[in-house]
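Dataset card, provenance and construction

Sequences and ligand SMILES were collected as paired inputs. For each pair, a complete structure of the chain with the small molecule in place was predicted and serialized as structure tokens. The example below shows a pair involving magnesium ion. Curators did not alter the output after generation; any descriptive sentences attached to a record were derived from the structure itself.
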Amino acid sequence: MPAPLLSVHGLGHRYRHHAEPVLQDVGFQVAAGEAVAVVGRSGCGKSTLLHLLAGLARPTAGAVHIHGEPVRGPSARWVVMFQQPLLYPWMTAFENAALGPRFAGRLRDSAAAVGELLALVKMADCAGTNVQRLSGGQRQRVALARSLAAQPEILMLDEPFSALDAFTRRALQVEVRAITKRLGITLLLVTHDIDEAVLMADRALVMDARPGRIRADLAFHHLPDERGIDDPAVQFERGRLLAALGETTEPPQPGDFHQI
Ligand SMILES: Nc1ncnc2c1ncn2[C@@H]1O[C@H](COP(=O)(O)OP(=O)(O)OP(=O)(O)O)[C@@H](O)[C@H]1O
Ligand SMILES: [Mg+2]
């Protein structure tokens, strides 16, 4: 078996002045190119976990390794996208998307690539528009182009679409999966949205709360790469995920396809 891209061992975290740990003994591995969703109730420690994975905070126990190297801080090899896109309001969509290459001093060489990324996220027509004049969904698309312009190995998402309307959210869920698969980027997503997990991931890690732990590791073996929420197989895996979260009493059986 190839070495995992990301591995987490005995990870724990306790915030200062808190008696109880938020995370305890969290362990899992992620292979290169995999799309993994971490699913759990609000407050179970998903954002804390993502911050530890990204090196934005230091764990109080255990370790995170990427390519076998301990994560000690942020890196250009992985990018995090948050619920609210962090864009510079006085810049155009292109200027925001091109920030990474500009800071790296290679904007001249990368301008065409940034233009292609804006086209990939369906924002080519708005390249010259000031981001203050864009909708929330369009801003999130620009933030995605900016994240991709950094050519990360891992894209980490913290409920990035939860502020968007249902249609925009659904479109971005499907597109982000397709784009990361096409570019070979490993996707790590934390969410409490079951549909989002089943639409975007190859595998879901189900978290318990207080302390946050991985309760189940569910592979979506039977889902096609391109999927829609109405597909019977998607609905079946959705039922398995709900059961793993303890939201239903019985996990679905293979013959239940049509009933769920
Ligand atoms: N900076 C902090 N200092 C102290 N406690 C914190 C801090 N950040 C989060 N917590 C606590 O840690 C727990 C987990 O928070 P976290 O934000 O990781 O949960 P979450 O699963 O991402 O929730 P949500 O789905 O609502 O985003 C919560 O009880 C929260 O109050
Ligand atoms: Mg959170």
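Derived descriptions for this record:
Residues 166-183 form the longest helix (18 residues).
The two ends are 35 Å apart (CA to CA).
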